[in-house]
Amino acid sequence: MPDSRQQPPPAPDQGTLVLCEARLTDGRTVDVRLGGGRIEAVGTAGALARAGAPRVDLRGYLLLPAPAEPHAHGDTCLTAELPGPPSATPEEIERRVTEATLLQLGHGATAVRAQVRIGDVQGLGALEAVLQARRSLRGLAELTTVAMPRLLTGVAGADGLAMLRDAVKMGADVVGGCPDLDPDPIGYVEAVLEVAAEQGCPVDLHTDAADSARLSRLAAMAGGLRPGVALGPCAALTRLPAETAHRVADRLAAAGITVVCLPQGGCAGTDRRGTAPVRLLRAAGVRVAAGSGALRDLANPVGRGDPLEAAYLLASVHGMRPADAYDTVSTSARAVLGLPEVRVEAGFPAELLAVRGDQLAGALSLAYSRIVVHRGRVVARTSAVREYCNSAAEAEPGLPRQGRKRLS
């Protein structure tokens, strides 16, 4: 069976596109010319427009590297309101995954990593459905998959281990799972790392991280593994004694392990809600990315799947600077997915998000209107207009207004 983990060929060149009068986080207002899926040039406003070249007017927008989603649950998304158990047919899973990925694309995430359960009754059916959704979404968003077997140790785990290898052959990009659910969590991790080393795959493990000794041993086992190891959501780290948490953070940093936290809520496979101690981890040198987790499934019926909300919560609740909070859903999230860095500079990939606002803090606070660019073309737009009814004063000088329509 062919290995579909290879990146698809670049989408056909969409030609030149100029993003006009965009605001950057350093305060400059610029034109940005895109071509061949990359940023060709960044110049002063009005300097890059070409006669006949398509343009997008970004006056009033802040232009940012696009976010990425490092922790979504593809096979359970959008199931919270269904009457009875959700359908597990490949067709229904593919439909839900496609809808969820487009929803997250509208928020700005041009790349999504989906956790997909394998084994039990479904076998590899859910994985095949997500892989089919990936093919249908090509050119709109990059969808990658984590194969998650339930058991990998003992007699019961033999089938899961064989299926994990089959999943990689089918096209799963990442090997992972939830060691907390296996009777032998360390044995589970050893099995995952063995398959990852055989196949040259990244590792993504789902854990509460409540056992500090187990986590330290995991760090020792996984240290130096390439192309990399991610753990999440690790919410229980917050409840460890301070000295223990600092020691674990140092070991994770030394091993080069990334922690993916979930500020918007919990997800399937974890016992507790909460957010990993992001400031402690970053201070120790651990790369921290932020994901969405559950998207309107039983673990979080109101999950939004919005990376900007994750960044907002890290800034608002956990005291991170807006720039550092946004890094967790953009640069650090892309690094987890093995994607190249994006900057609004010539030569970088044209993976961009324009948000209404002139500063990052304001954009995270009121991120209503958004324009999403993937591979150099606009793939999603969300527009919001706020209107007010007339007040006693017919015109209030200096007040911002998006609309003048009289409301009755």
Describe this protein with a few key phrases:
single chain; 408 residues; alpha/beta; eight-stranded parallel beta sheet; four-stranded mixed beta sheet; 11 helices; disordered N terminus
Can you lay out the helices and strands and say which pair or pack?
Blueprint: E1 17-23, E2 29-35, E3 38-44, E4 55-57, E5 61-65, E6 69-73, H1 90-107, E7 111-118, H2 125-136, E8 142-149, H3 154-170, E9 174-177, H4 185-199, E10 203-207, H5 212-222, E11 229-233, H6 242-255, E12 258-261, H7 278-283, E13 288-290, H8 307-316, H9 322-329, H10 331-336, E14 352-356, H11 360-365, E15 370-374, E16 377-382
Helix pairs in contact: 1-2, 3-4, 4-5, 5-6, 8-9
Order of helices and strands: EEEEEEHEHEHEHEHEHEHEHHHEHEE
Termini Cα gap: 63 Å
Treating each run of at least 4 consecutive H or I residues as one helix, how many helices?
Answer: 11
What is the count of β-strands? 16
Q: Report the C-alpha radius of gyration, rounded.
A: 22 Å
Which residue ranges are poorly predicted, with pLDDT under 50 across at least 5 consecutive positions? 1-13
The structural class is alpha/beta
- Quaternary status of these chains? single chain
Largest sheet strand order:
6-7-8-9-10-11-12-13
What is the molecular shape? globular
> How much is the average pLDDT?
90
In percent, how helical is the residue content? 25-40%
Share of residues in strands:
15-25%
Largest sheet: 8 strands, parallel
